[in-house]
């Protein structure tokens, strides 16, 4: 690899080193196990939007019998976990977007108020862009949307509803649905054929364990349900889901979102209680590197310019040397008895490997006349001992010195003067090669 290529490679590696780490890296895992619910510490952990409350060891998503000062009908509420999660990275909705997975399970009890025969409306597990309760979200809107906002893409929410009141767009009053930015479900399934009745009756309380599992790699969501008890162990998850659907969260929810529950009542009322909740979320780090981003934004183009300047400077310098050497070679042709040229200047400068082993390396012998003398051996001359003068001034003056001394010594012939063996004008720094003799003078040497 030549010097220009080496310099270019070095700068490219430097640019790569300075680049920020991939944004997609650093998946983290959050695991939370909540319940039975008491006022302390859960009011510190959750944002509770009235008339929701925490009492009777449960999250009361709409008013219950302990809510003083709230009526039961036409209400909506939310209970949200306060921590937000970065659920995806990359361009939203693109193939390159990476989405985290999550698993959640919770035990619910939906029951009528004062044994009313007409119950409603229902509750939902929700992924929302904020902790706020949407105004006017009572009735059919399940605490999710309202008459104005329902169906808007700007809602950025996904919910799994447990619906107990039939609207015109519902299959019945006992179903599970997947809601995207609207209470009109993208997918739903009646639970009646499965022998499951969400709403408790006046004589018996029903408890259900709901599982919602989202696969960020396959971008799919599955919902499972099984009967449970109020305080007993968790039931095993059924092998078969009751609802499954394709879902790309990066196309729907905000990059930073919250998990929780919402519910509502209308003229039909019910109690919407969450007794226990488990949540596991794969999320991406929220760490920010503003200084790195700024420095990289400014530094990488600067490094590129510097790299180009360095490589260009090296190429131009080498071109000047080649052109200058061409001038020297032209001058050499006009000398009488053109001296022998040694093309392999690297061997002159470094010495043959065999010579290095047998006679050691080239030895610095002295300094004079804008040059440094080295003493060594040439394999091509049967290990003849020679002296090499390496001119040390800048390129233009060094070449003038070289030509002047070469012209003089090439014309001299005397038994007490050392004999010129040859030259190497094609090297980066011109060299004179002289037979070494400790008993003679080279007129400008030091030995």
List the secondary-structure elements in sequence, H or E: HEHEEEEEEEEEEEEEEEEEHHHEEEHEE
What CATH calls the topology of the largest domain is Jelly Rolls
- Portion of residues within helices: 10-25%
Q: How much beta, percentage-wise?
A: 25-35%
Tell me the Rg in angstroms: 43 Å
Number of domains: 2
Q: Count the strands?
A: 23
* General shape: rod-shaped
Query: Runs with pLDDT <50, length 5+?
Result: 11-24, 290-296, 349-360, 440-447
Number of helices: 6
**Cα end-to-end separation:** 39 Å
**How does CATH name the architecture of the largest domain?**
Sandwich
CATH class of the largest domain: Mainly Beta
Describe the largest sheet: 8 strands, antiparallel
Overall pLDDT, averaged? 79
Which class of secondary structure composition applies to the elements?
alpha+beta
Structure description:
By secondary structure, the chain is of the alpha+beta class. It folds into two domains: 21-284, Sandwich (Jelly Rolls); 345-435, Phosphorylase Kinase, domain 1 (2-Layer Sandwich). The protein has six helices and 23 strands. Strands 1, 3, 4, 9, 14, 15, 16 and 18 form an eight-stranded antiparallel sheet that branches. Strands 2, 5, 6, 10, 11, 12, 13 and 17 form an eight-stranded antiparallel sheet that branches. The longest helix is centred in the C-terminal third of the chain and has 44 residues, at 290-333. The protein is rod-shaped, with a radius of gyration of 43 Å. The two termini are 39 Å apart. The relative contact order is 0.14. Residues 359-447 form the Protein kinase domain. This is Protein kinase domain-containing protein. GO terms for molecular function: ATP binding; carbohydrate binding; protein kinase activity.
